[in-house]
Amino acid sequence: MQERDNRQMFAPLQNDTFLRACWRQPTDYTPVWLMRQAGRYLPEYRATRAQAGSFMGLATHPEWATEVTLQPLERYPLDAAILFSDILTVPDAMGLGLSFQQGEGPKFERPVRDEAAVSALAVPDMERLRYVFDAVTSIRHALNGRVPLIGFSGSPWTLACYMVEGGGSDDYRLVKSLMYSRPDLMHRILEVNADAVALYLNTQIEAGVQAVMVFDSWGGVLADGAFQAFSQAYIQRVLRQLKTEHDGQRIPRIVFTKGGGLWLEEMVNSGQPGHITPEVLGLDWTVNLGRARQRVADRVALQGNLDPNVLFAPPAQIEAEVLRVLESFGRFPPGGGAGHIFNLGHGISQHTPPESVVALVEAVHRESRRLRAQG
Amino acid sequence: MQERDNRQMFAPLQNDTFLRACWRQPTDYTPVWLMRQAGRYLPEYRATRAQAGSFMGLATHPEWATEVTLQPLERYPLDAAILFSDILTVPDAMGLGLSFQQGEGPKFERPVRDEAAVSALAVPDMERLRYVFDAVTSIRHALNGRVPLIGFSGSPWTLACYMVEGGGSDDYRLVKSLMYSRPDLMHRILEVNADAVALYLNTQIEAGVQAVMVFDSWGGVLADGAFQAFSQAYIQRVLRQLKTEHDGQRIPRIVFTKGGGLWLEEMVNSGQPGHITPEVLGLDWTVNLGRARQRVADRVALQGNLDPNVLFAPPAQIEAEVLRVLESFGRFPPGGGAGHIFNLGHGISQHTPPESVVALVEAVHRESRRLRAQG
Predict the structure, then answer these.
(1) Which of A31, A173, A345, B23 could bridge across to A18 with cysteines, CB 3.0–4.6 Å?
(2) Does domain B2-374 have CATH number 3.20.20.210?
């Protein structure tokens, strides 16, 4: 009943360029959005956060999450919105005790480091994440059909990194020690995480997100072989469980393994029976888009991949680097079959001058139209 | 005169397996050494460092540098020694004021951030690095021909990262901002660095090192395109200036770009006129050795690439992971033409149990002999 009500209540989509690019359909220009586009580089975000008192204060109150999600869209003609939230909401709902310490990043009070802690892990009750799904529905209403809304989750491996390390890490010593010493325990953590992530994303889809993205932020720290066994296999386990349609709309899936440029062929086809190819692969700035496109034979759309540090340069250099990324992707067959979504190769830096994003978005739209007109 | 004396004084080499592997000549087994093999994971290193008072105290006194360089060879039958030093000796000699702050890593008192600081940069007088060259000669004598001695330097780009950031960095914001905003200044820094690195390595060669390695530790943080222009081009500038022979011995060159697995073809042949292919490419653990070997068509030897975190697992798992790396490289043509030097994909962790290295070295030697016997 809830679903039916939502469908009737959400306004029709006015700008479907992002979704068309996900499906490798022809578009008039290259759509653009930015990872962490609602964030600390915006003064209005900092003001709302000050009101909310904390990052999690923002994330857990749907009205604030809605406000900050829409802030970048008020400034820039971005082609998608992304839910304001954090990848660590899921392990927090598992009872690990998340906190954000001033200047230190996230910490878990009860990291998962022994057999007892692993055994106690379970897929959390989605009611504990109700604030996320309420935010999704609230944002969809507030967007009023301007652009599509992207939902997201961390990948099973990326969540496991935080759960075992108890926070960020330079060397991933604890999580990799567990992985190499007790692969059985690591597989058990990843199974629970994959099932939790799938349920979490499906519930976001029911609440109104129009595309989903899996952030495999730490997949790239794994050795060849370990990546396939401990990250990719569990992203596949997520994808196998995901709804691919909701309310008559297909839901494209974006997978982004930072530092995963060597494994693109396997992401498209691992050779395992039942492999699911996501619609879009996110790429960081180390990857040449044209070469990536050849390697995946245009079987997926590509998202990326400007170095966020380009945004510290003057507008002329930003435009030159945008053009370089657009040109590296290459031409679009007129009938479709290729897809590029412009983005950064990582989240936007908190130190970014907001006017740099004006230059970026303007250049992506203008130059991509011009390149398409050249054929 | 100094050179002639050295040649007469150094004992003949007893174990040339490492050098043969660099030249892709047949070997009975796969040679092994470890990045940072003389380091904090060894209690005897910690004892010597306590005597010396500091890391730079060790590095700047040839007798101590000699002692710690030889320590791992007393414990393990490693196939090469590497000069105990630091990549930041060169910018320190440029007058930037290096210090190592407790628990914080290296800091430069006078980072290079504006036009005036860039203009003031110059190739340092090698007399200021005499302690390094004295250490090289002292180590060669102490080794007494057991195994070859590897000299090293940071790459021009990697040194520039520290020089501009003033220390380590998470996001390379300052150095990349300079690179994107003022490429002219960045190129000037890199020119000076390349010429300094070449002179530094040549002077190490004259003092007695038998192979040289360029650590491009931060090349992998660059965007495609920027890597080629700001890191690879200046590594080439170093290679063009390097002595390739000394005292009748050829000096192999190892280049290791951490995170550079996507650019292997270009490292072997950039397509630029006069491109110099180093004898050996170092690889981190994200790269599959067998695939890398195909991509470079065995035109270089490969060095690597176990994840250092494997050394936190029990011996049986260490042996299994060693075997996986050896097998991923594949077979050796009996007449030569392929080369593999076993190493980690990064420096050994200070938390490594020293007995793990026993298991590692033993497994590399035993299993590689067995695999060669299988043909």
Answers:
(1) A31
(2) yes
